[in-house]
Amino acid sequence: MKFLQMEYFLAVAKELNFTAAAKSLYISQPALSKQIALLEEELGTKLFLRNSRKVALTAAGKQFQKDLTEIYHQLEHAKANVTRIGKTEKLHFSIGCFDGADIQDFLPDAFSYLKKLDPNIQISLYRGNFLENRNALERDDIDLLFTLDLELAPDSSYQMQKIIRRKGALIYSDLSPAAEKTCPTVMDFAQEPALVLKHQLSPGITQSTILNLQKLGITNPKLQELENFATLFANLELGHGFAILTEGASDHYPHLNKIVLGEEFGTWVVAVWKKGNPIAELLMDCYPGNL
Fold first, then answer.
1. What would the pLDDT profile of 172-186 be if each residue is shown by its tens digit?
2. Cα(245)–Cα(261) distance, rounded to whole angstroms?
3. Nearest residue to 16 (alpha-carbon basis) of 46, 63, 53, 59
4. pLDDT in tens, 196-211
5. Under a CB-based contact definition with an 8 Å cutoff, are residues 166 and 146 in contact?
6. Long-range contact set of residues 14-20: C-beta below 8 Å, sequence gap at least 24
7. Distance of alpha carbon 181 from alpha carbon 158, whole angstroms
8. Does residue 31 come out as left (phi exceeding 0), alpha (psi in the -120 to 50 range) or beta?
């Protein structure tokens, strides 16, 4: 049974005249008669009794009219609810992102893609350290988190997508003792402290930094753990140590330099969200080369 057939039936039941009903529906009378006949055939019962002058509802037709009228009232109520909610509903999407690092190579795209999905969507941005961001995602304070793949442990309740690959680099200051050399090498920094965030903020990144230093030949690094990226970069600028970060980490600091490392020292910026978040999944479909 088609929705259009129900509409045709109610028109005839109201008018009790096929010609008048066809006129109100803007269709021909033979087309209307054919649809009513198909409906009666599908239902296996007569809905109307008619002769050349009159049309009457059968008992089954009267019950069908009553039931369909109630359904139509429910449909009108549903339409009114949708219209009311649609006028007042404001889509909101919250994004979390690591602090202290460049985000221009991926975050503006996220805002642009979301606005294409719905120009009226309200987007909020939360920036914290790695631990704060993970906790915010767990509490549903944010819908989607941009972070680094090195700092995440596998979790089946989340979905993850790679966004952009960043090369690794040794970052140091003009004031660093090793910077006095024309072309300093990694080993020139072996006796300087390696600046890292506190282990509890991101155990994965701390462990990755230690492994990278060992691969670079600094087998017994002097680690200096810091509270946040702001403090880390302040120490770097003052020449108090070096850090293994991404290549672009020094771009906005005129007194910082870098030694770009091999591909094996790079990391991915990844997006992470809880399974079943439809806006996050639509957003991720917008990224080229999504995985």
1. 999 999 998 989 999
2. 10
3. 53
4. 999 998 888 899 999 9
5. no
6. 16/54, 16/55, 16/56, 16/57, 17/55, 18/50, 18/55
7. 47
8. alpha
